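Hi V.,

Quick status before I head out on leave. The structure for the redesign project is tokenized and pasted below; the design run finished overnight.
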């Protein structure tokens, strides 16, 4: 039996998430649909203002004739909800338009969470039932042309505004439809933005700028929602405007602030699994497109072999992201993915190829307070005793002030970059030793 949600032990749920609100809205919605049919109007051509005016007039008449005991404020709330229902995306429309919301997570029709500044919170938003939730989801998917039904119960797609939606419905989701929407800023983060948010220090920004401009190959490593894509967007601003950049992703999320970018996106295939185009296929093809740099949105499959080969054979300055909890774990994951992809050589040859291809691993993390911080800058220095050698240049070690507040601090370990790409920049007018805080 459906029950109203309560967000406090003492206070009842707000009117917009009460069962009374849902009952009135559902009955009024049916009435509006009937009136639209009776009028024979071309509803699809109505402007939002016209729809809002129509809802206001019809709802006032509906509540008066039915003698529904609600006040003016409650009537206004129902009218706004019905306008969003007819002209937009229902209960989550305001969340989709809120620039502070990073993720919208719907766990069944009664349970909605959002992420703001890296922190999840449950909010007083609900759908009438699973059918209502599915209707809104299909409206979101309609412009994309993606199918969602029992024969295709999972969808992962890019939204027209650049965000991403993932939907799982019964029988795979046991408690009703599960919807995950990841939103992206319309204007990508710049290095200055990340410094302002405390993600990195000026010294780390200088190091990363020098590494990108010196065509070092960089992997951004981190967990889910740690800020890998935002950091990759920021790093791309250091790429010279004279270079051609090709981005390859499963679901296009990168929005590089660069004048010459070619964006490629994989294709999952049709209903019978035909027509699949993987990231690995795109990476192979991109080598014939005269790229100066290749940026892989996320390395998580067989494409790791093509990426390592590209980085080792003339496409210096390439970048990508990978899911890993530490720089060493990142190296282990590269080896594992290469093994799954059918790498035929020995362990030593694979590690040698990784050591030759990757110059830096930038580890980023989302802390318990929701803040996103670069926690380590690690350089790959070579291969010794069949182990990939690394040196950590910077490490995030915050300290606690006497008043209990926490202050970010990045410790330089007193090491200069080992890469010959950066060593070539040691010349008149560029003092690398002064550039890095050592």
């Amino acid at each position: 039996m459906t029950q109203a949600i309560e967000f406090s032990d003492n206070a009842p749920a707000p009117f917009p998430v009460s069962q009374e609100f849902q009952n009135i809205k559902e009955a009024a919605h049916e009435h509006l649909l009937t009136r639209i049919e009776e009028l024979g109007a071309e509803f699809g051509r109505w402007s939002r203002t016209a729809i809002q005016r129509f809802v206001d007039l019809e709802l006032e008449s509906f509540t008066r004739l039915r003698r529904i005991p609600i006040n003016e404020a409650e009537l206004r709330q129902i009218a706004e909800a019905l306008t969003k229902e007819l002209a937009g995306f229902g209960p989550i429309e305001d969340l989709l338009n809120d620039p502070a919301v990073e993720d919208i997570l719907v766990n069944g029709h009664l349970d909605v969470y959002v992420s703001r500044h890296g922190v999840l919170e449950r909010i007083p938003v609900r759908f009438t039932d699973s059918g209502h939730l599915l209707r809104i989801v299909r409206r979101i998917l309609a412009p994309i042309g993606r199918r969602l039904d029992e024969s295709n119960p999972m969808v992962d797609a890019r939204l027209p505004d650049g965000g991403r939606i993932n939907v799982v419905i019964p029988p795979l989701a046991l408690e009703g439809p599960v919807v995950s929407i990841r939103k992206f800023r319309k204007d990508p983060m710049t290095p200055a933005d990340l410094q302002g948010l405390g993600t990195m220090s000026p010294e780390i920004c200088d190091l990363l700028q020098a590494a990108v401009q010196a065509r070092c190959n960089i992997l951004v490593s981190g967990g889910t929602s740690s800020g890998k894509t935002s950091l990759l967007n920021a790093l791309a601003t250091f790429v010279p405007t004279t270079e051609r950049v090709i981005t390859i992703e499963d679901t296009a999320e990168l929005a590089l602030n660069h004048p010459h970018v070619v964006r490629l996106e994989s294709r999952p295939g049709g209903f019978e699994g035909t027509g699949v185009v993987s990231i690995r296929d795109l990476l192979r093809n991109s080598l014939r497109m005269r790229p100066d740099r290749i940026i892989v949105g996320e390395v998580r499959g067989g494409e790791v072999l093509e990426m390592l080969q590209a980085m080792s054979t003339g496409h210096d300055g390439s970048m990508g992201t990978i899911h890993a909890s530490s720089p060493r774990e990142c190296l282990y994951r590269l080896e594992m993915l290469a093994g799954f992809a059918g790498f035929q050589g020995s362990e030593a040859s694979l590690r040698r190829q990784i050591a030759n291809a990757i110059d830096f691993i930038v580890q980023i993390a989302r802390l318990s307070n929701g803040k996103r911080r670069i926690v380590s800058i690690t350089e790959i220095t070579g291969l010794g005793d069949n182990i990939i050698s690394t040196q950590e240049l910077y490490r995030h070690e915050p300290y606690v002030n006497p008043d209990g507040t926490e202050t970010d601090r990045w410790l330089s370990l007193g090491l200069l970059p080992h890469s010959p790409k950066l060593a070539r920049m040691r010349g008149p007018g560029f003092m690398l030793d002064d550039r890095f805080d050592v």
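Above is the designed sequence. The radius of gyration is 26 Å.

G. will cover questions while I'm gone.

Best,
W.
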